[in-house]
């Protein structure tokens, strides 16, 4: 368990104000942020392709941090973390295990994941099935899932379109291009700007390309045995996910016994961000099913 907190300090429940921290393990330094009440078992957030600490929707983080300890972190070689970007999703899962167990000292966590973060979370559980107590998988799919390997083409095409329109690529990658989707995309991008101090470093082009190749390998690999995922699992996505096809959320639901599935209408990869007002309380409730609090 982490011992860096001082119980006399006020509890931070706003991601915009979460302190920037680092921890070094074996010469590698992980950048992370944490907020919410102290707990034996925190909720660790696993981020998407190209994401840094600044890419988490504060509306979702803050809703969960009202009652749970939330920890977000940069993968090695990304943002303020040093080291080498892992070439495979399996290696990324190994790095996450090192960060959680050796860096922060936890032997049990809950997981909130999005997109590539969901790939990493699955590999983490397959290798360390007792580490994770509760699991949230959003905008993601299983190893070897149909068309996951096509994410490279989709990503570069949407980046090209965003350059032409002088928009943030996430507006194209995460949201439909109808009136509702465009409005939701702009609102999401604006929320990501709410933090004004200690902003993270953007991902490098080399790191971004390495992550894309890792996702491509993941999509072309043999499926994992997800029967080992026995922990309570919440799966959510939009009904028109172009990056990780929505049918793969349904595939996960079938393969993870007892899982819950939410598909939001008229939304894409970022369906949980478009429907944050509905989804955030659902996720927060799901993640508070077990009392884990030490003090407030």
UniProtKB/TrEMBL annotation:
Ranges for domain AB hydrolase-1: 42-272
Keywords carried by this UniProt record: Hydrolase
GO molecular function: hydrolase activity
PANTHER family tied to this protein: AB HYDROLASE-1 DOMAIN-CONTAINING PROTEIN (PTHR43433:SF5), HYDROLASE, ALPHA/BETA FOLD FAMILY PROTEIN (PTHR43433)
Designated name of the protein: Alpha/beta hydrolase
């Amino acid at each position: 368990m982490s011992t860096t907190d001082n119980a006399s300090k006020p509890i931070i429940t706003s991601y915009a104000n979460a302190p920037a921290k680092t921890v070094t393990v074996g010469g590698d330094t992980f950048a992370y942020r944490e907020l919410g009440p102290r707990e034996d078992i925190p909720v660790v957030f696993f981020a998407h392709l190209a994401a840094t600490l600044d890419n988490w929707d504060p509306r979702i983080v803050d809703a969960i941090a009202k009652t749970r300890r939330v920890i977000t972190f940069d993968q090695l070689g990304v943002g303020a973390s040093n080291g080498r970007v892992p070439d495979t999703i399996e290696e990324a899962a190994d790095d996450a295990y090192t960060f959680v167990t050796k860096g922060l000292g936890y032997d049990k966590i809950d997981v909130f994941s999005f997109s590539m973060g969901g790939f990493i979370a699955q590999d983490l559980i397959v290798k360390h099935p007792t580490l994770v107590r509760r699991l949230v998988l959003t905008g993601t799919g299983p190893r070897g899932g149909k068309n996951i390997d096509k994410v490279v083409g989709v990503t570069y095409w949407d980046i090209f379109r965003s350059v032409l329109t002088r928009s943030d690529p996430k507006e194209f990658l995460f949201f439909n291009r109808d009136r509702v989707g465009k409005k939701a995309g702009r609102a999401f991008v604006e929320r990501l700007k709410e933090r004004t101090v200690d902003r993270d470093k953007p991902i490098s082009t080399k790191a971004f390309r390495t992550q894309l190749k890792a996702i491509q390998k993941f999509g072309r690999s043999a499926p994992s045995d997800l029967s080992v995922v026995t922990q309570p699992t919440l799966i959510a996505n939009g009904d028109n996910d172009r990056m990780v096809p929505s049918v793969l959320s349904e595939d996960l639901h079938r393969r993870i016994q007892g899982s819950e599935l939410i598909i939001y209408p008229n939304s894409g990869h970022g369906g949980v961000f478009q429907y944050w007002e509905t989804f955030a309380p659902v996720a927060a409730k799901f993640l508070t099913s077990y009392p884990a609090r030490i003090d407030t």
